[in-house]
Write a structure and sequence with these properties.
The complex is a heterodimer of chains A (306) and B (411). Chain A contains eleven helices and four strands; from the N terminus they run ααααβββααααβααα. Chain A is globular, with a radius of gyration of 19 Å. Chain A has 306 residues and is mainly alpha-helical. Chain B folds into two domains: 29-163 and 299-364, Rossmann fold (3-Layer(aba) Sandwich), CATH 3.40.50.2300; 166-293 and 375-400, Rossmann fold (3-Layer(aba) Sandwich), CATH 3.40.50.2300. Chain B is built from 14 helices and 15 strands. Classes of the chains: A mainly alpha (306), B alpha/beta (411). The A-B interface holds A 2-3, 6-7, 10-11, 14, 122-124, 126, 129, 133, 135, 137, 142-144, 147, 217-219, 221, 227, 258-260, 262-264, 266, 271, 274-276, 278 and B 53-55, 57-58, 191, 216-220, 222, 224-225, 227-229, 231-232, 234-235, 248, 251-252, 255, 258-261, 279-280, 282-283.
């Protein structure tokens, strides 16, 4: 049983990272109706910026201070990057057919990846260990203090975002723009600013997710955003794209499925579908859910957004 | 508006094309400047193919450096083939450790009419590339590929200067059974030609030796998260975990083993016997063991000298296979001298007859192109560095059967 609990914990941790990244996809889709393919690479930039900051500061300052500075640097860089992308790649295409911003997103993604390769090189970079791993054990399962911290922080960010969207003025403006941008504009909402803000917010949360990834796995790489972005996008669709609680649910669910499937499918299928199919299970689930419930788990069947 | 958009689009397209063309133009002026000098001496090109970018780049660059050092040493001493002075030139290509890219690179080197190739690093790259070199008649010495299939294809052009996994796998297996006394073992591979081959060989040996295989898991050579499979293995409680793969995976894997509180020992092949493994695994690297086909670098006949020369020139430690790359070049040069020609068709038969004292030790090839009497050393991480545990010289014939061979165990 303790192994099962360990797999669950692994899955929740992985899932919380997917959830944070998925939020970026879902918020942009909700407001603009477009998938921002460059989001995974924004997360990667956040991760590598944090890695560089930590490598530069090392142990000269106490670890919490270093982490805070690294996270702040990532957030600033990624928010700026998100704003630039919105301004240059997506805003001019606001009234264009849906395919155009989609392809632009792919182009931006490639541009960011190879710019990152120019800056950081193509090698895998490892982060110096500034936090001594402390262990927490319960029920026979074991996690490190870093992992517990990441999970708690992720939950806190998700809760804060939910509160923000519900209770604040800007949150209300975001919801209004999501429902109908033209009418919201008529009601006095500056939709241009709201859209830019949404991009920046999604990118900032993505930056924090990137910092978590690089702290958790200890290494960063210019191409790491690709698979992570793909899975997070899957998580967002799984939970219902455009739906913020849906993205969180989708992310956690995806992490759990991956962890449990990799752990148990090998035995269940007698070694036919072993742990090397780990990435495949997540996509199997996505296909299954979309066939049975096309709007995702928590999605409300919306008519054509046009 | 339309006219303006048209002009901007046209300008963008032209700029893109110009930038693309620019990339190719840059090398041309450089070689034009070299041509007048080279006209005096015959230039013999030696190709080297290894991953120069990506997760395994530190190993690929290390090999290229070894080759570069050899070419410079040879040129300094002066190479005379058939009475004429010859200048060696290195043509280095990046195969990104990707089997498909490796074939592209091999074709490129063959088209560039290199006399010989040192490469590739990964078995998964060397094997597909070997067909292209064989078709072009270019002799190929791999400094590091250990999958037995590399020399089993019947090509006359494939050679290697390391022991192969048909020897390394069983050596690791016997070590696990006899020295570590492991009774329950879990095996993980990285689904590459090298990792899977090594793991399979290891598994066969330990199973034949009576140990129980409690889990056989797979990951990929791009993965960084092993928590799921490690948790599953933790539940089976093995004495030993063996990993067939390379250090970008092995390092995080060992770290995550420690995070999960897994008490089993960790052993792997030459892919993880690098300083980079220790860097990635951090404190948790302590106690990990790995084998490498070859003698400990300071026990190699030319080892200490080579290490010093390498450090002086590149200001870095030797990662793994630089000495093998160095010797591969020297083997080619010696073969060319004996044949009196730098034409691959003429000196290829001489490569097979090599009997050369290299940095790594005596080099001679058997009829398949494998290194004769290739030693295998097992290392352990102690105090943050790799320490030698034991060296084994497997008898090639005896390893073909599964009974214990006449192991010459030296410390």
């Amino acid at each position: 049983m303790d192994i099962f609990l360990q797999q669950i914990l692994n899955g929740l941790l992985l899932g919380s990272i997917y959830a944070l990244v998925a939020l970026g996809y879902t918020m942009v889709y909700g407001i603009l109706g477009l998938i921002n393919f460059a989001h995974g690479d924004i997360v990667m930039v956040g991760a590598l910026v944090a890695l560089s900051v930590v490598t530069a500061l090392g142990t000269r300052l106490p670890a919490p201070a270093v982490l805070l500075i690294a996270a702040a640097a990532s957030v600033v860089v990624c928010a700026a990057l998100g704003l630039v992308i919105e301004r240059t790649a997506y805003r001019p295409l606001r009234r264009a057919p849906r395919l155009a911003p989609l392809i632009t997103g792919i182009g931006v993604s490639i541009l960011i990846q190879y710019s990152a390769a120019l800056v950081w090189g193509k090698q895998y970079l490892s982060i110096p260990e500034i936090v001594k791993p402390g262990k927490i054990e319960f029920g026979g399962a074991q996690i490190t203090t870093m992992q517990a911290f990441i999970f708690v922080l992720a939950c806190a960010i998700m809760a804060a975002l939910l509160w923000f969207v519900k209770a604040s003025r800007m949150g209300r403006a975001m919801r209004a723009t999501e429902q109908n941008p033209d009418v919201a504009g008529l009601m006095g909402v500056d939709t241009t600013r709201v859209i830019a803000f949404t991009f920046a917010l999604g990118a900032s949360i993505g930056a924090v997710a990137g910092v978590m990834v690089v702290l958790y796995y200890g290494q960063g790489h210019y191409f790491m955003g690709f698979l992570l972005g793909l899975k997070a996008f899957t998580a967002a669709v799984l939970g219902g794209i455009g739906n913020i609680p849906g993205a969180m649910l989708g992310g956690l669910l995806l992490g759990l499925i991956e962890s449990l499937a990799a752990g148990y499918m090998g035995d269940l299928t007698g070694g036919v579908f072993g742990s090397n199919y780990r990435d495949v299970y997540a996509f199997f689930v996505l296909v299954g859910v979309l066939m049975l419930r096309p709007s995702g788990l928590m999605g409300v069947g919306s008519g054509d957004r046009a | 508006m339309d006219r303006r958009q048209l002009i901007i689009t046209a300008a963008t397209v032209i700029t893109a094309l110009a930038l693309g063309a620019c990339g190719d133009k840059a090398p041309a002026p450089a070689s034009k400047a070299e041509a007048p000098k080279a006209a005096e001496m015959q230039v013999v090109k030696i190709g080297v193919a290894s991953p120069l970018t990506g997760a395994q780049a530190h190993i690929g660059i290390d090999i290229r450096n070894g080759v570069q050092l050899a070419i410079e040493d040879a040129n300094k001493a002066g190479v005379t083939i058939d009475g004429k002075a010859v200048k060696l030139e290195m043509v280095a290509e990046d195969d990104e450790a990707n089997p498909t890219k490796a074939t592209t690179v091999a074709q490129k080197l063959a088209d560039a009419k290199v006399a010989a190739v040192v490469g590739h690093f990964n078995s998964g790259a060397s094997i597909p590339a070997s067909k292209i070199y064989a078709d072009a008649g270019i002799p190929q010495i791999s400094p590091s590929s250990t999958n037995p299939d590399y020399t089993l294809k019947g090509y006359k052009t494939t050679f290697r200067v390391v022991a192969h996994d048909g020897q390394q796998g069983p050596t690791l297996g016997r070590f696990a059974l006899n020295k570590l006394k492991a009774k329950t073992i879990a095996v993980i591979d990285d689904s590459t030609s090298y990792g899977q081959g090594l793991a399979d060989n290891f598994e066969a040996t330990v199973k034949a030796g009576g140990a129980k295989l409690v889990a056989r898991e797979h990951t990929t050579d791009k993965d960084t998260d092993f928590k799921a499979i490690l948790t599953k293995i933790k539940g089976k409680n093995p004495d030993l975990i063996m990993f067939g793969g390379i250090d970008p995976q092995a390092g995080p894997m060992k770290k995550q083993m420690a995070e999960l509180g897994i008490k089993a020992q960790f052993i792997g092949g030459d892919g993880m016997q690098t300083p980079n493994f220790i860097k990635l695994a951090g404190n948790s690297a302590e106690g990990a063991m790995a084998s490498i086909p070859g003698l400990p670098k300071d026990k190699m006949p030319g080892g200490t000298e080579f290490l010093a020369k390498y450090k002086a020139k590149f200001n870095a430690e030797v990662e793994l296979f630089a000495p093998m790359g160095y010797d591969a070049v020297m083997v080619f040069v010696e073969a060319m001298k004996r044949a009196g020609s730098a034409d691959p068709a003429k000196f290829l038969p001489e490569v097979g007859k090599t009997d050369y004292q290299g940095v790594i030790g005596p080099i001679a090839f058997d009829e398949k192109g494998d290194l004769k009497k290739g030693p295998i050393t097992i290392y352990v991480v102690k105090g943050g560095k790799w320490d030698t545990l034991e060296t084994v010289t497997p008898d090639a014939a005896a390893d073909a059967k599964t009974e214990p061979p006449k192991d010459a165990v030296t410390k």
